[in-house]
Fold this sequence. Notes:
8 helices
Amino acid sequence: FQGIVITPLLLLLFLGSSSSVPFTSIFSQLFMTVVVPLIIGQIVRRYIKDWLERKKPPFGAISSCVLLMIIYTTFCDTFANPNIDLDKFSLIIIVLIIFSVQMSFMFLTFLFSTRNNSTFTPADTVAIVFCSTHKSLTLGIPMLKIVFAGYEHLSLISVPLLIYHPAQILLGSLLVPTIKSWMVSRQKALKLTRQPKAPVKV
């Protein structure tokens, strides 16, 4: 929700008011692409919730297939463009920067959610670390195509997002065992500290 407002504002800030970027059109297209389908889905879900719980359609598999197709077609569109002009060294640098940025974000969110005066539970911390640093191609690619429609270097601009999405999956799978063991041990420690002490018999 913030992205559809912040993205045009950032363009206005960095490109200036003299730019030919149609901010009103961008905002309306992002609203129709992101917000309207979400609202319609929530309204429809209220009426077919019981049917969904009975039939249990394979929405998880369908969404995974759609996401895979989006990633595949975006990769094809990006690297099939002869004007992409991206050498191997630059690609390696981009990968290293993205991994560093993502690890920094995860570390900062972990520190924020585990500070002394924090009211977050260990499970909350895990959700914050993974969810707050998550960026999806299903939202990012439509935003790029709307904001930079007709721009000849659109394929080049989408490269960082194409790397970020697989990177978060890879980092997530590598960090899951460590984060899980931390969460379990932290939960046990909290339970021990909250248990009332048995009275000592004299």
